[in-house]
Amino acid sequence: MTALLERSASAGDAAPREPAGRIRPLLWTLPPLCIVLIAAVYPLARVCLESVKLRDGGTGLGTWTSVLGSQAFRSALWRTIAIAVTSTAGCLILGTFLAIVLAFVPFPGSSLIGRLIDTILALPSFLITLAFTFLYGSAGAMNALIANITGTSSPTLNFLYTPAGVIAAEITFFTPFVIRPLLAAFALLPRQQLDVAASLGASPLRVLRAVIMPEAWPALMAGGSLVLLLTLNEFGIVLFTGAKGVITLPVLIYTRGIVTFDLAGAAVIATAQIVLSLALYVGYRLIFARVMAGPGRKD
């Protein structure tokens, strides 16, 4: 009888504590939620609200109609997507090749090259463009060397100030974002699988196609999607290249907002940029979930 009374008393003491136990995790989520709302959601909401303001002080969709219907916006949108997709494809091809070489082809200095790749990740993007200017610019080292050899006075290499120069600079800077996830995926690959495949007579290309790359697809998708989002919103490389005909959406936002002080028009383009980035992110998440839930994957 005494034991039953003690159990009932302890149960009665635990009952009031149950709501406090539920509220405590909610209280821990409030600080990071407030930080996200203030640092990310609020500025984006202000940009979206600014996009519906008219010149007379009212609100409406007149700015949206004029900006989205302009030839400058459509050209910038197409050029932004074309540069981002081409740069991402180049980063995937070059990054996959370099990651395979660094992971499976031992050679002296491979660890040093890996550290140099990590160093590039810590540098700002405009430094790559500045280095390209010293190397391939009109008065750069390569044109000076070609002029000394051929005796020509006009610069031979003029690709730096074209979309090709922007793409080359972006591939150089963003390729490490593909290499690092692939090297991490290759490090988790059991070496026994490679040894068994080689002992069964599989060629190196077949081992690469049938054993290595299926395990690296998630890392390749993660690196490629990250590069696509970064190149889609890249501003420093395009600006420091100085290519007059290469107007992307970030450059158009800068021109509208800072140069011409058209804040409403810049907000419209920025909102379109946000929607495009979010659409790419959602598409990546859906594709990644479908790949990870494939028949060959185990939970």
Question: Could you describe the 3D structure shown?
Answer:
This protein is mostly helical and 299 residues long. It has a single domain (71-292), classed as MetI-like (MetI-like fold), CATH 1.10.3720. It has 13 helices and no strands. The protein has helices spanning 2-50, 62-68, 71-104, 110-121, 125-136, 141-150, 163-174, 176-187, 191-199, 204-232, 236-241, 249-259, 263-292. Helix 2 packs across helix 13 and helix 8 crosses helix 10.
Summarize the structure.
By secondary structure, the protein is mainly α. 78% of the residues lie in helices and 0% in strands. It has helices at residues 2-50, 62-68, 71-104, 110-121, 125-136, 141-150, 163-174, 176-187, 191-199, 204-232, 236-241, 249-259, 263-292.
List the helices and strands and how they pair.
Elements lengths: L1 H49 L11 H7 L2 H34 L5 H12 L3 H12 L4 H10 L12 H12 L1 H12 L3 H9 L4 H29 L3 H6 L7 H11 L3 H30 L7
Helix pairs in contact: 1-13, 2-13, 3-7, 3-8, 3-10, 4-8, 5-7, 8-10, 9-10, 10-13, 12-13
Key features?
flat, 13 helices, mainly alpha, 299 residues
Domain module tally: 1
CATH C-level label: Mainly Alpha
Secondary-structure content class: mainly alpha
CATH architecture: Orthogonal Bundle
Q: Would you tell me the overall average pLDDT?
A: 80
